[in-house]
Specification:
Blueprint: E1 6-12, H1 13-23, H2 29-37, E2 41-51, H3 61-69, E3 73-78, E4 80-83, E5 89-92, H4 96-106, E6 112-116, H5 123-131, E7 135-140, H6 147-152, E8 155-158, H7 163-166, H8 173-189, H9 200-203, E9 208-211
Parallel strand pairs: 1-2, 1-6, 2-3, 6-7, 7-8
Antiparallel strand pairs: 4-5, 5-9
Helix pairs in contact: 3-8
């Protein structure tokens, strides 16, 4: 009998957003889950992003709510605002530590780790997961992924090659978006809503940026 690998997916939300945006398509997260369920026993799919605790920025909360109700474990972290030595306002948010802790905790229970990120800071995590017996697959794009991360991975998948399997159909984008937002509103109505507000600037794929006064 053929062995069925146990898989866990880890998505660096900001990094993935930047990567697919540069390639001109969007992720259909329902199709993404389906694709990797075909590849083995999908134990968990994590999605990580930093969020704001105010309403100054356009919200990504409908997306986070939809993911939370459709098979993903959503992990958020409050973004921090500070003033640097030059007096400029900056905002910083990084979820690398949270992702790494979750990965190391689940390592004894999986055969494959699928990491959607091109961030070179994850090289040490990939090495640690490999020492624990997990095969690590990195999904990103060569122009944006760090070389050291690609070299460390057991397999590197160009995300553009998955476009037909996990990409959103442009023709269905508007109707799907409206449906997801409606579903998210209905779900939030039935529960205590989160006070966090996610920033589109964070989703654009940067841990730190300047904000004009």
């Amino acid at each position: 009998m053929k062995r069925i690998d146990k898989i866990a997916i880890f998505i660096d939300g900001p990094n993935l957003y930047t990567t697919v945006k540069s390639l001109g398509f969007e992720i259909d997260y329902k199709r993404l889950l389906h694709e990797f369920r075909l590849r083995g026993c999908l134990l968990r799919a994590f999605y990580y992003t930093a969020v704001f605790e105010d309403d100054e920025h356009q919200s990504l909360q409908p997306l986070l709510d939809w993911l939370d109700y459709n098979g993903f474990t959503v992990v958020t972290k409050a973004a921090k605002e500070f003033v640097d030595l030059t007096g400029r306002r900056k905002i910083k948010g990084n979820i690398d530590v949270e992702l790494a802790i979750d990965a190391l905790e689940i390592a004894p229970h999986i055969d494959q780790m699928v990491l959607f990120s091109g961030d070179g800071d994850f090289r040490s995590l990939v090495r640690a997961m490999q020492r624990r017996g997990a095969r690590v697959i990195v999904v990103s794009s060569t122009p944006t992924a760090a070389q050291e991360l690609r070299r460390q991975a057991d397999e590197f998948i160009e995300i553009v090659t998955l476009k037909d399997k996990i990409g959103r159909d442009p023709a269905a984008r508007q109707s799907r978006s409206s449906s997801e937002e409606r579903t998210a509103r209905e779900q939030r109505h039935r529960q205590v809503p989160s006070s966090n507000r996610a920033s589109l600037m964070m989703a654009a794929g940067t841990d730190e940026w300047d904000e004009e006064d």
